[in-house]
Model the fold of this input.
Amino acid sequence: MGEIHVGWSTGRCRTVLEGHRGQVHAVAFSPDGRLVASGAEDRVVRVWDAHAGEQVACLEGHEGWVSGVHFSPDGAELASACLDGVVRLWGVSSGRVIASAKSRGNLLAVAFSPAGDVLATAGQDRCLHLWERDGLRERRVSEKHAGVVHALAFSPDGLRVVSGGAMERCVHMWEAASLFEIRRLETPGRSVRALSFDGSGDALAVACGDGSVALLTEDGALARVLQGRGGKALSVVMSPDGDRVVSGAEDRVVRIWDAHGARPLAELEDHRGEVLSLALSPVSPLLASASSDGTVRLWDLS
Done:
């Protein structure tokens, strides 16, 4: 799968997905790359046909901003996290709520485990929560971070989960089964805004509050720092082969980086607002970016 990403050096906007009212905070591809989900200030999750660029579903019911979306690995369900503190599981084919659960405080991040049996959420209560997919029964709660948790990610093998947020110069790495803290990975910035593993799980990209993107090894070593010029780095995604990193920032620019040379390869400047979330298609060189300008843009990276 990683081979489809080798050679990225540019990108062109193929489609603009419009329909949300207000900032779009989250975007995700389905495992087969056919669908894109987005969540926004308008309290709605929208599902789009990635190839036709048309909305195929509008999922309503949240009572606050939708801050995170993530498809299950089998593509059957879609998870959404919200500032109302509720995590919901939706049937992708039916568009109906399958299960929901109330957390403590605003939710800012959500992700399925690679096996698809567990869901992780994090947010205002400064903890990482693990939920059984079946019925959304809470399984584990981590120790508290120093501040609000903005980001989380499972390692590709599902054995580890990382999290980070405000007021900390580190990423917490936990054993996924027990939420025992394995180690803390130091970062150059005072806060963590987004996290993304490569396909092997040996490299981790961290969007930092100082405007940089830190590339860390699995054991916590700082491999490289990608230094942008656009204020806080707000979103990041790493290609499965680890050769490319894409970041989004306050300056409205999507940047494509050579991960090994730590140099920018392209700057995509079509957004008119901060770039708040990024996602890569699992099956094609297609990038989705969500912005405070109210749009999701699909970029052809081939």
